[in-house]
Amino acid sequence: MLSFGYIQKGLLFAYPPDLSVAQIIERLRSSLEEALYHFYPASGRLRVVTCEGGGITCHVEVAGEGQGAEFVHAVADGIGIADVVAADGQDLPKYLKDFFPIDHLAVNFDGCTNPLLAVQVTELIDGIFIGLAFNHAIVDGTSYWHFFNAWAEITRCKAAGNEVVLSRPPMHDRWFIGGYGEPPIKLPYSSASEFIVRVSPPPLKERMFHFSRESLTALKVRANRECEKGTISTLQALSALMWRCITRARNLPLEQKTTCLLAIQNRTRLQPPLSPNYFGNSINVVSTTTTVQELLEDNLGWSAWLAHQSISNHTDSAIRDLVHIYMKNPHFINLNTFDIHSVVMSSSPRFDMYGCDFGWGKALAARSSSGNKFDGNITAYPGWEGDGSVDLEVCLLPEYMSELEKDEEFLAVVSPPMKLEVLLGTSSR
């Protein structure tokens, strides 16, 4: 994952009525410092940072001068909750990248001075946005949201005057598949420039689309009826739908090969399974490929069954085989690894994003920065209302996005976004 950008996800909150901004910042800073001692006991310190730019003014919150994480307090003049939430069904605002700290820092892989973790708390007119940037070589999505939730739990405990005892303490034990021993593992490179690849995608349209529980239930029923197998999951059916609709929007030649790639976690698939609290990376990407003609002329159930098979085949033995292959020929994936005709499903609606309770109510929205974006990238989030709903962040070239939003199969499944007044009416305590 060294060639990938940082995982950059964040949560939008309304201001709690009983706390000042200064109190919020202090609570978040002190609890973050404690979270670091749980997750990085050898280097749990905050570092100083100063930055300005992009209409965001950043202030420094100092807690020691170690080489740990960075905490940035920023102010976004003239931007409110409605500006962020209104992005549902519309283009995501470009200033979202300014809500994340790594975009303010120089990327220098020769010296590699970036922190592994940086946090930015951005003041809006009527709320705050908490953005985390975590080096993807250190965590996957499971670990990312584990840390986010633990930080929130610590904040909540400290505010209530309770002893901090994490409900899910991180598991740091490392193990190596038989025959490869302990680190360091030597790689066949003499310089980082041989495997670090930075990709600058063309201008993209980035939009959020909402799928209600009822809509997804009907989609799953349809996929299982059409494939006549009865084992298609909701996410497999949704992935197949997006693969079909985006491929149709691209208007590719019928003989063109197209691929659907799905990020998949290994923890429960390994035997014995890894702890769900294992803190690190334990992921792979599985894929299925067919021609445009086969994908579009057959039904949704057929393409969903392809996705189902690729996931079902990702077993303990398959994971171990991938490790053996890697150790014989180490390589690094980057955004150029993905074929331009592919659709990539990343993140997961199973991640507990809206369970991050800092003590002032449920988040209003989850959003991401500009990192790791490319044509055909889809990021899955749980829907705000829960109950099996899903939000998808879709990145496409402008002409493809325009076609997707006219696609009849897509429009039959996508749901109206949550209204701002509903979010605001139930979010605060």
UniProtKB/TrEMBL annotation:
Q: Is the Transferase keyword given for this protein?
A: yes
Q: Matching SUPFAM superfamilies, A to Z?
A: CoA-dependent acyltransferases
Which is one GO molecular function term here? Answer: transferase activity
Keyword line: Transferase
Please give the InterPro entries that the UniProt record associates with this protein.
Answer: CAT-like_dom_sf (IPR023213), Sec_Metabolite_Acyltrans (IPR051283)
Q: Which domain of life is it from?
A: Eukaryota
**Protein name per UniProt:** HXXXD-type acyl-transferase family protein
Provide the species name: Rhynchospora tenuis
